[in-house]
Amino acid sequence: MTDVVLFNALLAALRAAGEPTRLRILAMLHRSELNVSDLTDVLGQSQPRISRHLKLLVEAGLVERIREGAWAFFRLADGTQRSDLLAALLERLDGADPILVRDRTRLVEVRRARAVEAADYFRKHAEDWDRIRALHAPDEEVEAALRAMVGDAPVLALLDIGTGTGRMLELFAPLAARAVGIDASTEMLAVARARLQDAGLRQAVVRHGDLFALPVEAGGFDLVILHQVLHYLDDAARALREAARALRPGGRLVVVDFAPHEHEFLREAFAHRRLGFGRDTVEHWLQAAGLKPTDFRLVGAGGQSAGLTVSIWLARDARMIADQVISVHGVA
Ligand SMILES: C[S@@+](CC[C@H](N)C(=O)[O-])C[C@H]1O[C@@H](n2cnc3c(N)ncnc32)[C@H](O)[C@@H]1O
Q1: How many angstroms does the Cα of residue 233 sit away from the middle of ligand 1?
Q2: CA 215 to ligand 1 centroid distance, Å
């Protein structure tokens, strides 16, 4: 950007931010992503007015709009000089200012109401989920095995595909500088969003999207998770190829799903398309996607769980492995 363009861009950004309602909106977005109805509820202004303010902020490059089905979420833009300037401005706002305190209090109330709605949805399905859960190894055992396999080294960018209610983000986002969850269900995402807010995981966001065409950059993630998702899909191999595309060279993919089983009722009652997967089947798909399987564990095999054993596959993007071998052997 030339100096003149930068000057004009900064001026437009300052003008956009230099209005009371818009500054209040920016102060709220500094804390979390919000949609138009969150903002209308907090600010007590009409939807067209809030939308007009948001449009100006988006045009000035201060705010990004993210579509989620019929909804749109807004968040502060990042990675530009304007966003750096804005962050510096927002950090200098007085947190004890009565207007900002009132907005924050109102936002907490609005969020609480959203969390109640999300919990209602969750409750309606809880019976189904409990029924499935009773069939397989306790979540704690699966999660302990997962933690042991993933380790606790910091992760730059984490992607949880089919994030559902966001449990994997809750578990692994604390390791990550940036975490993204993708799901096709807006109801699930509402639950996940409330959960991430409760856990204070500001580095984690969730996005609406199809796992066969992930709405994320290729090669951007060093840890990708697919937890209890594959058995819903008509083409699991394609989902793994798409997941592999999101990995950085040397990045790791974790797949958790059921071992082959005979609970046919899961197809009709819970829309399972596949009755689990054999170790070799998934390893073959992982290799076909350019990954090298590096670890595998079974959880709950032979235990008191009524037959559903959980399998965990860990694989690594083979590009880095090849590069490391080459450099170890001193070949350029
Ligand atoms: C059983 S849930 C698992 C959720 C989460 N991974 C967990 O283990 O708690 C499966 C999730 O996959 C999502 N899903 C299924 N097909 C999808 C698709 N094509 N694109 C994105 N998400 C999908 C569903 O919406 C659902 O939230």
Answers
A1: 9
A2: 15
Mutate which of 158, 232, 235 to test ligand 1's pocket (most atoms within 8 Å of Cβ)? 232
| pLDDT tens track for 236-293 | 999 999 999 999 999 999 999 999 988 888 887 777 888 899 999 999 999 999 999 9
Residue closest to 188 by CA, chosen among 162, 204, 165, 207: 165
Virtual CA dihedral for 76, 212, 274, 126, nearest 10 degrees? 20
Q: In what order do the strands lie in the sheet with 204-208?
A: 204-208, 176-183, 155-161, 221-227, 247-258, 310-317, 291-299
Choose between 231 and 115: higher pLDDT: 231
Q: Which residues of 226-252 are buried (b: 16+ CB within 10 A; e: fewer)?
A: bbbbbbbbeebbebbbbbbbbbbeebb
| Greatest C-alpha distance within the chain | 70
Q: How many CA atoms lie within 13 A of 100 on its CB side?
A: 17
